[in-house]
Design goal:
Elements: H1 2-15, H2 43-59, H3 65-95, H4 108-142, E1 144-146, H5 154-168, E2 175-177, E3 191-198, E4 206-211, E5 219-222, E6 229-233, H6 234-240, E7 250-261, H7 275-287, E8 291-297, H8 302-312, E9 319-322, H9 331-335, H10 367-372, E10 376-380, H11 386-398, E11 402-409, H12 417-427, E12 431-436, H13 444-456, E13 460-462, E14 469-470, E15 473-481, E16 484-492, E17 504-511, H14 514-528, E18 540-542, H15 546-562, E19 568-573, H16 579-591, E20 594-599, E21 616-621, E22 626-627, E23 631-634, E24 641-645, H17 651-655, E25 657-663, H18 667-682, E26 687-690, E27 696-698, H19 710-723
Parallel strand pairs: 1-6, 8-9, 11-12, 12-13, 14-25, 17-22, 19-20, 20-21
Antiparallel strand pairs: 2-4, 3-4, 3-7, 5-6, 7-8, 10-17, 11-15, 15-16, 16-17, 18-25, 19-23, 21-26, 23-24, 24-25, 26-27
Helix pairs in contact: 2-3, 2-4, 3-4, 11-12, 15-16, 18-19
Length: 724
Amino acid sequence: MSNSNGSEKKSEKLRNPKLPTAVKPSEVPEGAGEDHPSLYLNRELGWLDFNWRVLYQAMDERTPLLERVRFIAITASNLDEFIQKRVGGLKRQEAAGVDHLSPDGRTPDTQIDLVRDQAAKMQYRISEIWNNELLPLLEKDAFIKISYYKDLKKKQREQMDEYFMDHIYPTLTPLAVDPGHPFPFISNLSLSLAIKLRKPDRDAFNFARVKIPTNQPRWLPIESGDSELNFIPIEELIRQNIHKLFPGMEIEGACLFRITRNADIRRNEEEAEDLKSMISEELRERRFAEVVRLEVEKNIDENVLNLLMNELHLNDDDIIKVQGILDLTACFKLANRNIPGLKFEKWNPVIPKPLYHEGETEEEQSIFDIISKGDLLVHHPYESFSASVRRLIEEAADDPDVLTIKQTLYRTSEDSPIVKALIRAAEKGKQVAVLVEVKARFDEASNIEWGRILENAGVHVAYGLVGLKTHAKVAMIVRREKNKHVTYCHIGTGNYHVETAEIYTDLGLLTNDPEIGYDVTNLFHYLTGYAPSQNYKKLLVAPQILRSSFYELIDQEIAFAEKGKEGRIIAKMNALDDVEIIKRLYKASQAGVEIDLIVRGHSRLRPQLKKFSENIRVISIIGRFLEHDRIFYFGNNGDPKMFIGSADWRFRNLDERVEAIVPITLPGLQKRIISILKKALKDNRLAWDMHADGSYTQRRPKKGQKERSFQNMMMKNARKRAIR
């Protein structure tokens, strides 16, 4: 009977998941004005709540097992980046004596305390799920076993010890710490063993550090003689053989540790003579930036811990004691194993019917012929990036009638076919200009290298604008057709990255609209030359006019509602934190405008707040694909206005970046946008409803109701469109 009750309780818990809530809003006092801190949620804590929703995918029994393992890795990777960027940034503010309050009324030091406490809770929970839920399930259902050295049979130990001596031992570099050997440099996010040693007949202990090599597999296969896949973590094998590195010394302990450094290094761009050189210098500084987190194994020797804390200039609040394996981003490798039934069914992006090649249609057409018949809207990864955007750039590179190709590159893949096509175009004598953004966080080194390669091929390369990141996703091609030049454009919501195009949902417009071509031409003149006061006919560009344009669009809905007409706003984005936009949305709600927001990540706005946001609803969709597209819908009293583009409703997108938003005006494409938004709002499988206190509840189908997964619906629709 007790087992039955326990099972029922577990089932009920899964039906109504209750996640921890990091944000802690204050009560809204009577008569609070629009600037009152109680009307806004903390951005940093809100981001942690988003990562809780990601972590829940690893807890959800409806998710295939290896995908649950992948979500553990994603959550751990997200948290690493958060600590580097956000905790690092707050610490920088604290050190600089910054005391201004966040919109929710908190100083940097108060936020650091809250964030560290909540991040530690998340890190403990990640380990708990891995140790207690996923490890046993991997062994039971996937026949994947992670072993410790002590669990191995004698023959297996001998085989692994032999592997250690042949493959690992020669690559290790033990670094002693004593008066003749200073404490070594520890690289960011690297795993190391802290070794406590003692010379025979000496009382004082010695310390050495051994870095776990990154050019070896993290999971080493063990011969088991059966169908089971048996692995041992490389650090476990090194630990058990560590005495071989220190002959004549007594090993008193070997403990794993990992550091996280501050990635929030900022220089004064106004004083930089060369942005590329400035970023290169910043990358060098980031390697040696202060440590903001130290992860250690739970049973670490206190003397060793104190030594690490002193050498790395840390206090107790910076220490995370981990039960089990450190750095669960290594779980990506396990999740990638091909075991049928334990992963999402593979999705192959479909080719939109207009873009079929010869053999699939009656005659072969160039992509320019196809676009000339009418604008195309492509939705990745449901529709193929390679058959649309990549094809556009590659055909342009090889088409003798193409004169010019211009493109922005914010992030791109390691072996980018897009970059190869641009190089090929330049080598064929076309004029090719590329804006390579060197300030794309964590992609700076890669982008600088791509810029160098492009320059060497004869491409005109610009490296961004001082004080602004170029985040716009735009490409343009000028083609000679008969006696005129026609401009073809792609304006999208995502990067020109063939790998992320398979897992990020993004929209792109392919068009030869002359007015959009004029606008994109002017945008590139702004990016590569001196043209800060450009005029645009259709494109909404940040930082020049995007903010004011959104104000006008929201105000128009307010005006309709105040006249008793319908006011309607639907917006889909990654995050929402711009206070001035939020104020206008509160005002719109008070005027009677119905507002639905689909915000994957954090939101400073508090929905369903009495007297302020009772007409605002916020959902977050978390699933197998990362929701990345930005869509903006304004009802306009029955004549809707719709836009897609690169910008979220965040201060950085509206004021600190170059962004491009394009209107969708063709009725057929508008119908598709409306369909996407409606399906997202109807989701009862992946969607989480946000409440006024900042907490979220995952939607579940009601009794007798059919499950509606937004992403499954989009895959089904893509197939239908492809075979019509």
